[in-house]
Design goal:
Elements lengths: L17 H9 L2 H48 L8 H25 L4 H20 L3 H16 L10 H27 L4 H22 L6 H26 L4 H8 L2 H13 L5 H31 L1 H6 L6 H7 L11
Length: 341
C-alpha cells in the first residue's frame, strides 16, 4: 500500500519523446498509468528473482541500484554544490534506508513467494500510517491487517513460509517506513527529484562492494548486466515515469488506493513469471491486508477533508495519502505512505 505525497506540482518533464509518445502514453488514462507502473514494478521484481541464481540476492540489488542511479543522474542532473551539511546528512540517511529496503526485500523474495513478501513488507508503511493518524478507526484497519498476517502464517506459526524470509520481509517493511520519513525530508530540502537521484547514488555505492564481494566477476557478464539493466528499468525508471504522468491528473488519495493493490499484482507476477501459486488461505490473507491499506488511506482522506473545512492552513500541510516511495522519484514531495521499490 502506500501513504504520502504532497499536492506540490510535479516538475515538467523535458525529453519525453515528443507529443506523439506523450499522447500515446497519456491515452491510457491516469488510472491505467498507475496500474501499468505497479505491474512494471512487480514484474521487474519477478524478473529479479529469476536472475538471482546467476548473482544472488545481493548481486541483483547491486545491479539494480547502480543502473537506476546512472539513469537518474543522467535524467535529473542533480546539483551537488550549495547544500548544507544537514542536507547531505538527510540524503545519506535516505540512501541508507533505500539500500536497506531493497536489500532486505530481495533477501525475502529469495526465500518466500512474492505475494506474501510484498504483503508483509506493506505492514511497515501501514503501521506508520495508523500511528501518524492517531484515530481510533485505524485500530480496525490494523486489526484487519493482523488477521491477514495470522492467516498468512498458517494460523500464527508461519509454518508454510520460511521464517528467515518472513523476518527479511518485515525488516524491509520497517526500512520502507524509514524510507518514507526520509524521502519527505529530502523532498523538502532538494528541488524536484535531485534528492532521490543523490540518494540512489548513496544506495548504489553502499551495495556495489557487497555485490562484488558476493558475486565477483559474475556481475559483469554481458547477459547478467543486460538483465540487471532490465530490472532497473522495470522496477524504477518506467514506473516513476508513468506515475509522474498519472499524478498530474489523479488525486493523491486515488493514487494511494490503487497502490494498495500491489500485493495482489505481486502475486500475479509471481505466478506468471515464477510459477508461485497461492493457496486459498494465502489469497484471503493478502486480500485482508489490501483492504486494511485501502481503509487506512480512506480514513486519512476523510481526516484531511475535515481539517480543510476547519483550518485551511492546517489542511495545506496535512499528510496526503499516496505512495511516498515513488513520490520523490516522480518529483513531488512525499509525506508518508502505507510499495519496491
Amino acid at each position: 500500500m502506500n501513504v504520502s505525497r504532497s499536492d506540490q506540482a510535479a516538475p515538467t518533464a523535458t525529453h519525453d519523446g515528443g507529443p506523439g509518445l506523450r499522447g500515446r502514453i497519456g491515452s491510457l488514462g491516469p488510472v491505467g498509468l498507475v496500474l501499468a507502473g505497479g505491474i512494471s514494478v512487480q514484474f521487474g521484481g519477478a524478473l529479479a528473482v529469476s536472475v538471482m541464481p546467476r548473482v544472488g540476492a545481493v548481486g541483483i540489488v547491486a545491479l539494480r541500484l547502480v543502473f537506476a542511479a546512472l539513469v537518474l543522474l543522467v535524467v535529473c542532473r542533480p546539483k551537488v554544490r550549495g547544500h548544507s551539511r544537514a542536507d547531505w546528512g538527510t540524503v545519506v540517511a535516505f540512501g541508507v534506508a533505500m539500500a536497506g529496503m531493497n536489500g532486505l526485500f530481495y533477501q525475502s523474495v529469495a526465500r518466500i513467494p512474492m505475494g506474501p513478501a510484498v504483503t508483509l513488507e506493506v505492514l511497515g508503511p501501514l503501521a506508520l500510517s495508523v500511528l501518524a493518524s492517531r484515530r481510533a478507526v485505524n485500530l480496525v484497519w490494523a486489526g484487519l491487517a493482523l488477521c491477514g498476517v495470522f492467516l498468512l502464517g498458517g494460523g500464527g506459526g508461519f509454518d508454510g513460509l520460511d521464517p528467515v524470509g518472513v523476518a527479511y520481509a518485515l525488516g524491509a517493511g520497517a526500512m520502507w517506513a524509514m524510507y518514507i520519513l526520509f524521502s519527505a525530508r529530502t523532498g523538502r530540502r532538494f528541488p524536484q527529484a535531485d534528492g532521490l537521484a543523490l540518494a540512489m547514488v548513496v544506495a548504489a555505492v553502499l551495495f556495489l562492494p557487497l555485490g562484488i564481494a558476493a558475486s565477483g566477476s559474475r556481475l559483469v557478464q554481458p547477459g547478467t548486466l543486460a538483465l540487471g539493466a532490465a530490472v532497473a528499468v522495470l522496477s524504477s525508471v518506467l514506473p516513476y515515469t508513468l506515475e509522474l504522468l498519472a499524478l498530474r491528473r489523479l488525486p493523491a488519495h486515488t493514487f494511494a488506493v490503487l497502490m494498495s493493490l500491489e500485493p495482489a499484482i505481486a502475486s500475479v507476477a509471481g505466478f506468471l513469471v515464477l510459477s508461485q501459486a497461492l493457496s486459498a488461505v494465502e489469497a484471503v490473507a493478502i486480500s485482508l491486508v489490501i483492504a486494511a491499506s485501502m481503509g487506512a488511506v480512506r480514513t486519512q482522506v476523510g481526516r484531511r477533508r475535515v481539517r480543510a473545512g476547519a483550518d485551511p492552513v492546517a489542511a495545506a500541510v496535512a499528510p496526503t495519502p499516496a505512495d511516498p516511495a515513488r513520490a520523490a522519484a516522480a518529483g513531488a514531495e512525499p509525506v508518508g505512505r502505507p510499495s519496491e521499490k
